[in-house]
UniProtKB/TrEMBL annotation:
<dbReference type="InterPro" id="IPR006638">
    <property type="entry name" value="Elp3/MiaA/NifB-like_rSAM"/>
</dbReference>
<protein>
    <submittedName>
        <fullName>STM4012 family radical SAM protein</fullName>
    </submittedName>
</protein>
<dbReference type="InterPro" id="IPR034505">
    <property type="entry name" value="Coproporphyrinogen-III_oxidase"/>
</dbReference>
<keyword id="KW-0411">Iron-sulfur</keyword>
<dbReference type="InterPro" id="IPR013785">
    <property type="entry name" value="Aldolase_TIM"/>
</dbReference>
<dbReference type="InterPro" id="IPR007197">
    <property type="entry name" value="rSAM"/>
</dbReference>
<keyword id="KW-0949">S-adenosyl-L-methionine</keyword>
<keyword id="KW-0408">Iron</keyword>
<dbReference type="Pfam" id="PF04055">
    <property type="entry name" value="Radical_SAM"/>
</dbReference>
<dbReference type="InterPro" id="IPR058240">
    <property type="entry name" value="rSAM_sf"/>
</dbReference>
<feature type="domain" description="Radical SAM core">
    <location>
        <begin position="43"/>
        <end position="279"/>
    </location>
</feature>
<dbReference type="Pfam" id="PF06969">
    <property type="entry name" value="HemN_C"/>
</dbReference>
<dbReference type="InterPro" id="IPR010723">
    <property type="entry name" value="HemN_C"/>
</dbReference>
<keyword id="KW-0479">Metal-binding</keyword>
Amino acid sequence: MNDLSLAARLAAEPYSAYSYSYPHKLAYQPLAQAQPLHALWLPEKRDALFLYIHIPFCEMRCGFCNLFTLAKPDAALPGRYVAKVLVQMAVVAEQLGSHGIARFAMGGGTPSYLPLNLLATLLEGAQRHFGLDLQSTPASVEVSPETASAEKLQFLKQQGVDRISIGIQSFLEHETRQLIRPQPNRQAHAALERIRAAGFATLNLDLIYGIAGQTRQSFAASLAEALRWQPEEIYLYPLYVRPLTGLGQIEGRSGRAYPRIAVADATGEDKAALYQTGRDHLLAAGYQQLSMRLFRRPGAPGKAAPVYCCQEDGMVGLGSGARSYTRALHYSTEYAVGRPSTQSLIEHYCDTPIEAFASAHYGIVLDADERRRRFVIQSLLIRPGLDLDAYRQRFEGADALADLPLLTALVEAGLASLDGARLSLSDAGLALSDSIGPALISDAVRQRMQAREAQLC
């Protein structure tokens, strides 16, 4: 394959998939034999773990959402769920043995959907069972404009949470309606005012591009409004329309694809043009680009805490749908998108007997090849890039360029550069992250993903 054919192949489908984790959750399957957590974690480095709690509830399900979450659950279900998470906490903490938490997050779903007493119960439980020190540990909680009340925000700040992430998606109401997310602009502004008033060190704000009818001008207008709040972080997400989402179901019933993006000059430009608009706008405002999606304001405050590295340190997930990562096994509960299946899985979690939490039952075993691919994907798609010496040290002298010839092809195509032992994506390569990441997936994982996707659909 020559340089031009590689660049052309990747550019032909620049938005294949978001490679935020590897292997993808669609590759998980029931394990042939339950794996005791104590034995799984015993050989792992456990002094700088990431602790994550998944809250699978929302006040509404946005049209683009394919997350494991249930909109407007029965009134009793959140309380039952939180009580079961505490049971899981006790079991998992005991199985881990001696450990330290370097980073903490609650995501979903929408954690702020929970009433204040349930949020307090979860944080108290995490501190009691895992020795979590929220005052010194970087801690992030996701909220929505509808549920980010002043009372909840003030409580989270007092507890030590230093990062709040909020999905605004667009500051233009006709665009949020296209996303099946009716969100009055005054509601978004009021939530941002409350977050800033609470004094969190880091505000992360999410925007989406690729919305039907969105133009470069309208996207720039949303960006300008976002910058008015001076968020420490901004994520720019390309819109993916997946089969079981609200937008996907509308597309399926209509028998036509989700409309292409209309741009003011009618040249037929699509997400790539909008990405460039967003990137240029944020770079001009002084933000640093760390990945295709993440832009960070220099000098943003942060806690002087132990560093967590996704390549070296494990992740402990709690709750239905949460994933946990050791070097040899990634595991979770089962996953769904449609409401009946999601509700059934959450109910099943709430009924889980205590002894079941001591083992992993569903996931994927990572052989040597998958571990190497994970290291490359998790490093290459974020700046400063892949440390070839660290790869060699981690994998007993292995050469990443020899193990994955695509990496050399990226350099030859001008999509990546080598600076000593550092392989970094160029600006052009970073823009193609959603095709480069999928190109690095193994055939075995791809086949498992395709099989699971066919089952879900």
